[in-house]
From TrEMBL, chain A:
Cleaved signal peptide residues: none
Name by which UniProt lists this protein: glutathione transferase
Gene3D superfamilies for this protein: 1.20.1050.10, Glutaredoxin (3.40.30.10)
Gene source species: Aramus guarauna (Limpkin)
Protein keywords: Transferase
Keyword Magnesium annotated: no
Highest taxon in the source lineage: Eukaryota
Gene: Gsta3_1
InterPro entries xrefs: Glutathione-S-Trfase_C-like, Glutathione-S-Trfase_C_sf, Glutathione_S-Trfase, Glutathione_S-Trfase_N, GST_alpha, GST_C, GST_superfamily, Thioredoxin-like_sf
Entry-linked SUPFAM superfamilies: GST C-terminal domain-like, Thioredoxin-like
Lineage, opening ranks: Eukaryota, Metazoa, Chordata, Craniata, Vertebrata
UniProtKB/TrEMBL annotation, chain B:
Enzyme Commission code(s) on record: 2.5.1.18
Protein name (database record): glutathione transferase
Lineage start: Eukaryota, Metazoa, Chordata, Craniata, Vertebrata
PROSITE patterns reported for this sequence: GST_CTER, GST_NTER
Organism expressing this protein natively: Aramus guarauna
GO molecular function, one term: glutathione transferase activity
Domain GST N-terminal: from-to ranges: 3-83
GO biological process, one term: glutathione metabolic process
Length: 222, 221
């Protein structure tokens, strides 16, 4: 056992990708255990390793952590990415939760039936450009600082850069009317740990494709 | 301005109920402002009061907080219901997140189309009795303590009790195979602040009736 956190999930983004981002941003190396078959998944359940019979699973500091938000909160708290007090934490939580709602749409998008794909993409564009991005554009404009909360790099910044890149993959011009977010994107992408994560060969997973969708359905569908 | 937290939502459980539970459990009095029509929601949106155009919204300590998890986290931490260190917090978070998943199923039941209701009910019962309740039964059995985490009353206890009661409303004998959850339910229900919240006349909301579903849909859709 190496002492590094160990992530169990499919070999793709899904619900684990924010965890990979956060660990990487914190400069923490981790190992991955990829689920490829239903049998593997059923064995994990039988072994009693998955508290609620679900992945993501992250083995960290002697715990077998499940529930993505619990995992992310723990990592953020441990590596000082959660603000300096309760009020900064509250802001970070609000921002992260909002972004997570947007990311949920992106998460589900590859699983849309073909006839719904265009409509779902329009919904993502609508929400990104009318509900979520304007909020962060305004936050950055108003305080003029490099980071979203407390003039310090936090979980909120990591979540936002992940979301911006994910939306852009689907809608390349999405940041057109958001100059602050464009600058934010450049700034975050240049932070050493994030820059490293964005390079080929990192644990970052590629955009979901048909093969990924098939694998997920095969392993998890009842 | 009274200094009490002020909750903005419709007059029903939904995503605000867990927050009402948490404040009540902490012994914190709060005020409520109910959305009755779409116009009420639109007005709040136009005011710039809703960060992401959505409720729940809770005015607390000079903030207009949105996102129920963020609100729950803040209240839990402020009133010492979040464990004593990162690891206890991690346990509480895991337990609470799973309870939220079950809650979502319970909340969404009233909104299911008629032809899907029976199947949905079966899913609720299956998940509750096979996925979630056994975990908490085992936690209580393994440590033999009164509370889920760290031998101290926490948010996890509050949220679990809320969900146990909602599940029982759905199927009265749903706790039949879970003796420790039954005694947990009795024990936590007797904590003074919670006992008070469980009495008639408190700010606890009743389950959503079918006849009220259209009204709620009109506010949000």
């Amino acid at each position: 056992m190496s002492g590094k956190p160990r992530l169990t999930y499919c070999n793709g983004r899904g619900r684990m990708e924010p965890v990979r981002w956060l660990l990487a941003a914190a400069g923490v190396e981790f190992e991955e255990n990829f689920l490829e078959t239903r049998e593997q998944y059923e064995k994990l359940i039988k072994d009693g390793v998955l508290m609620f019979q679900q992945v993501p699973l992250v083995e960290i500091d002697g715990m077998k952590m499940v529930q993505t938000r619990a995992i992310l909160s723990y990592i953020a708290g441990k590596y000082n990415l959660y603000g300096k007090d309760l009020k900064e934490r509250a802001l970070i939580d609000m921002y992260v939760e909002g972004i997570t709602d947007l990311m949920q749409m992106i998460l589900m998008f590859p699983f849309s039936p073909p006839e719904a794909k265009e409509k779902n993409l329009d919904s993502i564009k609508e929400r990104a450009t009318k509900r979520y991005f304007p909020v962060f554009e305004k936050v950055l404009k108003q305080h003029g600082q490099d980071f979203l909360v407390g003039n310090k790099f936090s979980w909120a910044d990591v979540q936002l850069i992940e979301a911006i890149l994910a939306v852009e993959e689907n809608i390349p011009v999405v940041l057109l009317e958001f100059p602050q977010l464009q600058a934010f994107k450049t700034r975050m992408s240049n932070m050493p740990t994030i820059k490293k994560f964005l390079q080929p060969g990192s644990p970052r997973k590629p955009p979901p494709d048909e093969r990924y969708v098939e694998t997920v359905l095969k392993i998890f569908k009842k | 301005m009274s200094g009490k937290p002020k909750l903005h939502y419709f007059n029903g459980r939904g995503r605000m109920e867990s927050i009402r539970w948490l404040l009540a459990a902490a012994g914190v009095e709060f005020e409520e402002c109910f959305l009755e029509t779409k116009d009420d929601l639109t007005k709040l949106q136009k005011d710039g009061s809703l960060l992401f155009q959505q409720v729940p919204m809770v005015e607390i300590d000079g903030m207009k907080m949105v996102q129920s998890r963020a609100i729950g986290n803040y209240i839990a931490a402020k009133y010492n219901l979040y464990g004593k260190d990162l690891k206890e917090r991690a346990l509480i978070d895991m337990y609470v997140e799973a309870v939220i998943d079950l809650n979502e199923l319970l909340i969404s039941h009233a909104f299911q189309p008629a032809d899907k209701k029976e199947q949905h009910f079966a899913t609720i019962v299956d998940k509750a009795t096979n996925r979630y309740f056994p975990v908490y039964e085992k936690v209580l059995k393994d440590h033999g303590q009164d509370f889920l985490v760290g031998n101290q009353f926490s948010r996890a206890d509050v949220q679990l009790l809320e969900t146990l009661l909602m599940a029982e409303e759905c199927k009265p004998d749903i706790l039949a195979k879970f003796p420790l959850l039954q005694s947990f339910k009795a024990r936590i229900s007797n904590i003074p602040t919670i006992k008070k919240f469980l009495q008639p006349g408190s700010q606890r909301k009743p389950p959503l009736q079918e006849k009220d579903v259209p009204k709620v849909m009109k506010i949000f859709y």
